[in-house]
Amino acid sequence: MEQVVDCIPIKSNDIYYQVSCFDGGHYSVNLQQLTCSCRIWQLTGIPCKHGICAILKQRLDPFDFVHEYYTIDTYLEAYEHPIYPISCEALWGNVAKIAKIGRLGARRPTTAVTESH
User: Fold this and answer.
1) Where are the alpha helices (DSSP H) in the chain?
2) Beta strand pairing status for 26-30 and 35-36?
């Protein structure tokens, strides 16, 4: 959050902000859709520094704007089912050999296609 100090949020309304940074960049932030024009927020699910700047201007908690993927509940749900161990390959017994797959027979035609006028 240290980098947030080099940005200035300009409020349009409670949802939209333009964030200007000292490096000359200008970014559009939408707090309702959890987006920023830098696209970091959309790609990671974690607010970028521009989003955090706008969130803090609203006196809100940036952690409330992180994607639910990062919550403990989602983590516990993902790992609620056990992952069963398998025995080593030597104990598998006779396993039929799978035929090696070669190139597919279908190819593009080598003749040139002519356009009809």
Assistant:
1) 40-44, 49-57, 72-78
2) antiparallel
Whole-number Å distance between alpha carbons of 30 and 58? 12
Cβ burial 37-70 (10 Å sphere, 16+ → b, else e): bbebbeeeebbbbbbbbbbbbeeeebeebbeeee
What residues have CB less than 8 Å from 44, skipping those under 6 apart?
none
Residue whose structure tokens are 């699910």: 45
Q: CA-based angle 105:110:112, to the nearest 5? A: 150
Sort 20 into a burial class: Cβ within 10 Å, 0-12 / 13-18 / 19+.
Answer: middle
Indicate the pTM of the whole model.
0.66
Tell me, what amino acid is at 69? Answer: Y
Residue given tokens 């509940």 in the structure block: 73
Q: In this predicted model, what pLDDT tens digit does every residue of 87-96 receive, in sequence order?
A: 887 777 776 6
